[in-house]
Design goal:
By secondary structure, the protein is an all-beta fold. It has no helices and 13 strands.
Amino acid sequence: PSVNTTPTVSISASPTNLVEEDGTLTTLTINLGEPPPEGGINVTIDSDIPESLAEFKVLEAIYNGAQLFGGNQDASGFTVTVTSQTATIQLAPFDDDVDEGPENITYTLQASDDYIIDSAANSITINIEDNDAPTEPVVSFSATPTTISEAEGTALVMNFSVDGDIPPEGITVK
């Protein structure tokens, strides 16, 4: 007869410093202190940042020894079914066109009756650098009507619109 013991789970990541535009892959590694039971074991990883999974190309993740069980309700974490003693998940950051500045996201193993969390390796922090250059603003101008009469007192309406990023100090139009 086999003896069922509760496995100890740990998590690590390498590298932990990613550059959004470079598409740097990080590898999350989930280790079990012993082989998983037949059918695997569900391990949940979560952050305290809603929608933090949107910072990664989750649909392009590469799983080895694990498979995605599902994301949580606010997209801050996920559950994987770990089917080998060491499982890896490779993820790249999602490169959007928004200059967000540096982001630091900590993912932590969540408690379960199915495993014991290794307190020395219970979380990972991923740092994502976003070096999108701010979009130079382009100012457009229009006026209506195109003909005015001082004698008639015609009102002139001037419309300005801006495409791109407006710097904190504003824009001067000359």
